[in-house]
Amino acid sequence: MHEIVLHRIWESQNFPINALITTRGQRIHVVSAGEPNSLSGPDFHHSKIRIGDSEWSGHVELHIKASDWYLHGHHRDEAYNTVILHVVWEADTEVLRKDGTVIPTLSLSELVSQKVLNRVRKSTVRNPSKELACKGLLSGLPDDILSSWREELFWHRLEVKCSQIELWLHESDNDWEYVLFKALLKGFGLNLNGQAFLSLERALPFSVFRKLTPDPLALESVLFGLSGLLEEDKCDSSYFSSLKREYLFLKTKYNLIADACQHPEFFSLRPHNFPTIRLSQFAQLYHKRPNLLDKIRKAESLSALKNLLHAQASPYWNSHYTFGRKGTYSLKELSDSFRDILLLNAVFPVLICYGASLGKAVHLRIKQWAEEMKAEQNKVIRIFKKEGILSRNTLESQAIIHLYQNFCRKNKCLQCHWGSYLLYGK
Question: According to the model, what pLDDT value does residue 35 have?
C-alpha cells in the first residue's frame, strides 16, 4: 500500500460510506472529505465529519499505519491539533494530539474491495500526474457543447459559495454587512489562511469592529493581536509598540478572548500574501469604507466595483513584510488580480444572495463582469490549454477549475457534459 493510493481512495470515497465506524465504535458520516493540501500540515483541509452525534470541521490526516503519526512527529506539532479524523489503512495504535486528546481513527483496510484497490492502483501508476482521462479528445468538441458546459460550471462554482453565504445569513439574522465582512475576511486569507482569518470574528464581535473603523490603528491592533502576531518581543518599532499597547487596552475594554482564534501561516506564501500585509489591508479597507455593502450593491461597472475594493497597507509595511524585518520598499496595495479573487469568493456570492432576497436577478450583470475579468493562470488552466481548451476570461477559467476539482480528479467522466458527449455523442 502506498500513501498516494490511500489519498485517492479517501478523495474519491471509494468505500461503503454507510459502514464507517471509528476504532472506538463511533459511527462516522463524511459530510465533506475536504480539499487535498499540497503544502505543509494535514493532508486534507476544510473537511466536515459527523462522529456520533457531533459534527466537526477541520483537517484529516492519512497514514498507512496509525503509528506513522508518531513516526512523523505529529504528536509534537500544534498544526495537527486541528485534525478531526485520522484515516489509516492499518490501525495499529491509538494516537494523540499534542494537547493529549485522542484523535478518532478510521481504518479502511476492511472496507475497500480488492477490485477498487486494483483500479485505484492501476490509475495511479498509469496516470501519476493526474492527466485528463479525455487527453487528446477535447479539441473536437462542438462550440455549443463547450460554451454551455462552461457556463453551467461557472454557476455551479458560485452556487457552492452562495450556500455558505446563506448559512451565515441564517446565523446572523440577515445582517448583510456582517456577512460581507465575514466573506471578505475569509477571502483576504486565501486558501491557506482563510479559516484562520475567519476565526477572528469568533473573538471579535462585528459590533465592536464597526465601532473601531474610524481608527485604523485600533482595527489593526485587534486583528494582529487576536491572530497572535503581537507576541513577538524582539521588535522595537514605535508602530509595533503602539499596536501592542492599543490591543491590550481594547482586549480588556471589550473582553476579547483570543483562545478561539487560529494563528495564520507564513510558510510557502509569497511575501505580498503574508498575513501581516493582508490584515493591514483589510483594516484599511474598512477604515475607508465602513458601510461597504451599500456602496458595492450600487456599483454600475466592474471598474467601479474594483475601485471600492482598493486598499493599501499602513506605511510601515511599505518597507516590511513581518514585524522587525526590513525589506525592499514597495507600496503594499491590493493588486488587480487579488481584487478579482475577492470579487469571485466574496462579493459576487453576496450580491447574488442579496439580489435573490429582493427578487432581483443579478446573474446577467455578474456574468458580464466575469467575462470582462482576466483568466487565472495556473497549473489546471495549463493542462486544459495543452488540450486546446483556452480560458479567455474569468468565467471560463473558473469553470475549468471547478470541472477539474469536482469531475476530472474524481473520475466523474459520465457526469461531465464533455465526457458524456465524447462517450455517447450526447
Answer: 87
Q: What is the mean pLDDT of residues 391-404?
A: 97
How many secondary structure helices (H) and strands (E) does the chain include? 19, 8
Give yes or no for a contact between 301 and 325, defined as CB atoms under 8 angstroms apart.
no
User: Residue 408 is placed in which grid cell?
Assistant: 476530472
**CA 170 to chain CA centroid, nearest Å:** 21
32-47: per-residue pLDDT in tens?
999 887 666 788 999 9
Place of cell 477549475: 401
Q: Which residues make Cβ contacts (< 8 Å) with residue 226, sequence separation at least 6?
A: 200, 203, 204, 256, 258, 261
How many CB atoms within 10 Å of residue 76?
Answer: 9
Burial class of 182 by CB neighbour count within 10 A (0 to 12, 13 to 18, 19+): buried
The arithmetic mean of pLDDT across residues 309-321, rounded, is 97
Q: What is the per-residue DSSP string for 64-75?
A: EETTHHHHTTGG
- CB count in 10 Å sphere of residue 306: 19
Please give the distance of CA 81 from its chain centroid, rounded to a whole number: 19
Q: Which residues of 97-121 are buried (b: 16+ CB within 10 A; e: fewer)?
A: beeeeebbbbbbeebbeeeebeebb
pLDDT, tens digit, 9 for 90 and up, residues 238-273: 999 999 999 999 999 999 999 889 999 998 899 999
Contact (CB, 8 A) for 91 and 105: yes
Please state the pTM of the whole predicted model: 0.72
User: 10 Å Cβ neighbour count for 167?
Assistant: 11
d(CA 395, CA 408): 18
* DSSP sequence for 108-146: -TTTS-HHHHHHHHHHHHH-TT---TTTTTGGG--HHHH
360-392 residue pLDDT tens: 889 999 999 999 999 999 999 999 999 999 999
CB contact set of 180 (below 8 Å; sequence gap of 6+) = 292, 293, 296, 346, 347, 350
| Amino acid occupying residue 409 | R
Length of the chain: 426
Q: Up-side HSE of residue 131: CA atoms within 13 Å toward CB?
A: 11
